[in-house]
Amino acid sequence: MTTTQTPPHIRLSNEIAAQFRSRDPAWAAEQIAAHIRSFWDPRMRARLLADAGAADGRLDPLVVAAAALLPPARQDS
């Protein structure tokens, strides 16, 4: 039996998006992006940005819209 566990950054971002589902999508995306910018570790933000480009359906569309509002992940040397 194979079990797949949802990565934390996907689970958490989708949970945040669920709180905004009944709101205006543009406003919701801005609020989600603001939360992620303020409270998420840079590594989790980088993982989210990487996954937002994948069209695999794991991320809520509001999360994908919010990710587009976030600055690109830093490339540390």
Explain the overall architecture:
- The termini are far apart.
- It contains four helices and no strands.
- The mean pLDDT is 91.
- It is mainly alpha-helical.
- The protein is globular, with a radius of gyration of 13 Å.
Order of helices and strands: HHHH
Mean pLDDT, to the nearest integer, reads 91
Oligomer state of the chains in this structure: single chain
Flag low-confidence runs: none
Question: How many beta-strand elements?
Answer: 0
Helix content: 55-70%
Report the β-strand fraction as a percent range: under 5%
Q: Rg, please?
A: 13 Å
3D shape: globular
Distance between the termini: 40 Å
SS summary, helix count: 4
| Structural class estimated from helices and strands | mainly alpha
Describe the largest sheet: none
Notable traits:
single chain, 77 residues, mainly alpha, 4 helices, 0% strand
Give a quick precis of the structure.
60% of the residues lie in helices and 0% in strands.
Please outline the helices and strands.
Elements: H1 8-19, H2 25-39, H3 42-52, H4 61-68
Helix pairs in contact: 1-3, 2-4
